[in-house]
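TICKET: design request
STATUS: open
ATTACHED STRUCTURE:
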């Protein structure tokens, strides 16, 4: 806990003293739908000892080999625990250090339109996420399209249970993305036998307005032959 607090305070100190270009550098690759060979997640920022060098998934445990899943949290939350980047973006990075089963369990879906726009959708622990790039494959951390919606729940380590409004058989595999992002479908519907939950509205997936700092900048997405790559740098800014 002390190490984590020190790490977070280090970020605040760096940000408060001066502005850096690309304080947080990202390099991630995930092969979608076939196998997880060659997938990785690399990041580097002001907390140098939290940098991960091409972290990958451990096939036996399904966890990242270099612990980037936990170490990256210093860049996801400020010292008060407020989120400083979209949840869906953070979750997307994790597929680079996860086995193929994670993609299937979350129904990770990626499409590239003829005009170059890349659309990424997945549902994790009952929350659906949407990320859409511009025609050049770029997305702004603050002005880009990041959305989410509560559509289901998960009990323990079991499969996700998706509300009937969004899945024909209540599984993530049959999720209907058009219905998920249809704001005309009402929220607030309670369901679940052992766990009482409610469906939610389509909302913007953004940093907390109460965060002490935030990230600014763009990330470059490419999607070719079922391989998604994300590279770029983000600059830390005080609020």
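STATUS: resolved
RESOLUTION: sequence designed for all positions
ATTACHED SEQUENCE:
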């Amino acid at each position: 806990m002390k190490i984590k607090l020190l790490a977070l305070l280090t970020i605040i100190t760096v940000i408060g003293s001066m502005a850096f270009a690309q304080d947080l550098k990202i390099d991630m690759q995930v092969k979608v739908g076939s196998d997880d060979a060659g997938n990785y997640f690399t990041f580097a920022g002001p907390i140098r000892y939290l940098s991960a060098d091409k972290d990958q998934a451990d096939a036996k445990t399904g966890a990242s080999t270099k612990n980037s899943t936990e170490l990256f949290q210093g860049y996801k939350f400020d010292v008060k625990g407020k989120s400083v980047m979209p949840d869906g973006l953070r979750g997307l990075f994790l597929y680079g250090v996860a086995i193929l089963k994670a993609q299937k369990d979350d129904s990770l879906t990626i499409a590239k339109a003829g005009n170059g726009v890349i659309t990424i959708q997945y549902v994790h622990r009952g929350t659906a996420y949407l990320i859409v790039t511009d025609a050049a494959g770029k997305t702004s951390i603050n002005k880009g399209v990041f959305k989410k919606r509560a559509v289901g729940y998960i009990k323990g380590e079991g499969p996700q249970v998706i509300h009937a409004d969004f899945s024909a058989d209540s599984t993530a595999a049959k999720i209907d993305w058009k219905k998920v992002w249809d704001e005309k479908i009402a929220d607030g519907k309670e369901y679940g036998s052992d766990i009482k939950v409610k469906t939610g509205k389509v909302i913007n997936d953004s940093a907390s307005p109460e965060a002490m700092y935030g990230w600014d900048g763009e990330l470059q997405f490419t999607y070719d032959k079922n391989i998604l790559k994300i590279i770029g740098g983000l600059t830390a800014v005080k609020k």
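CLOSING REMARK: Residues 17 and 77 are 19 Å apart (CA to CA). Residues 2-17 form the longest helix (16 residues).
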